[in-house]
Amino acid sequence: MLYKLLIVDDEKIIRQSIESKVRRLQHPLAAILHAENGLEAKNIVQETAPDIIITDVCMPKMDGIELIQELVQVGSNSKIIVLSAFDDYAFVRKAFKYGVLDYLIKPINTGELHQQLTRIYKDLHTKEGENLETERHSPNSIINIVKDYVRKHYDRNITLSEAANLVNMNYSYFSKLFSEEANVSFSQYVMQVRMEKAKELLTDPINRINEISERVGYSNIYHFSRAFKNYAGCSPTDFRKTGVR
Predict the structure, then answer these.
(1) Cα→Cα distances 166→126, 141, 147, 223, 239, Å
(2) Predicted TM-score (pTM) above 0.70
(3) Edge-to-edge strands of the sheet including 3-8?
(4) Mean pLDDT of 202-215
(5) Are residues 123 and 144 in the same domain?
(6) How far apart are CA 164 and CA 159, in angstroms?
(7) Where is the domain boundary, 81, 109, 130?
């Protein structure tokens, strides 16, 4: 199977450099497309549906984060890697919230590029082989696939769109199916997994609460504490003091 790659960067020399490196790596690509900003990239995605997108974050007209938001809203299945300078990590953290797989630091290391593309190819191949015809799976097995994925990746913001893409299902239909089969909404299930893991971590006094917050996917300790209290009925500190289970 040959895949389509879209490279998005406002600097032509960077786009050409990435293409040159990809071609030397001899990955199975049918086409390598270019866009100089998010707006142009959005149009290309609508027309050609690339399998993989490598995008810069800082661009004119539409930046990388805005592009990713647009793609999430339309339910794009493209696998996304973000390009980042060392001082762009705040943008990268935001990108991860929308299901971005990873990021590459400029100037791009060929070995890291190879590793990330290889991982994506394996994922694409697996999805083609195992989940392409979702109707062959029972609803229960579909939900179990997603639950297992959440239990492995609860430390980052897993979007409903990302989960639906995992099992090749329509965003709205998947949301309805998950709620019916799991008896909770997808977002509630993610929260349950995070909070139960937080409880487990709180039993060990060596784990600081701010570290636990990060480990279960909350960059803001206030948001974590509020979510934990809503879930457990007490603050993380009180939970640790009283040993409530």
Answers:
(1) 10, 13, 11, 27, 35
(2) no
(3) 29-35, 3-8, 52-56, 79-84, 102-105
(4) 93
(5) no
(6) 9
(7) 130
